[in-house]
Amino acid sequence: MRLLTHNLLACHAKNCGSSSNNFPLIFRNVKLELIEADYSEAFLKGFLPKLDWCALVHTARQLGDISLPEQEPEFTQAPPTEAQLQALHHVLLEIHVAEGEMLCPNCEHVYPIRSGIPNMLLAEHEIPK
């Protein structure tokens, strides 16, 4: 699972989906892989407005990557530099969580990750009605 995907996931278990503390999910017991990905400046620039910078930086640091600055650059003031886009590309698209778990910081529901695929399915009693 790429951090690109992780930056879009939140817990939707019963009594948790409306909480403001259900994102970002916390990684536990992970096995990481670095997998090269094709670079696309247009994709990265298009994804910037959808990105939760603080969550991405926090997660990257939790996984041992410090290539992104703590504070989000002011991309409205100046377009991203090539170096900024390369660092973003690396974190979003090349760091893969192959195995492990994601834990909701609010309700502590565990979402397993196997073969790089997060299982976000909920049991029937966990589904909001």
TrEMBL record:
**A Gene Ontology MF term for this entry?**
protein heterodimerization activity
The record, for InterPro entries, names: Trm112, Trm112-like
Gene Ontology annotations of biological process type: rRNA (guanine-N7)-methylation; tRNA methylation
Q: Which family does it belong to?
A: Belongs to the TRM112 family.
* Subunit and interaction comment: Interacts with TRM9.
Name of the protein in its database record: Trm112p
State the organism named in the record.
Malassezia vespertilionis
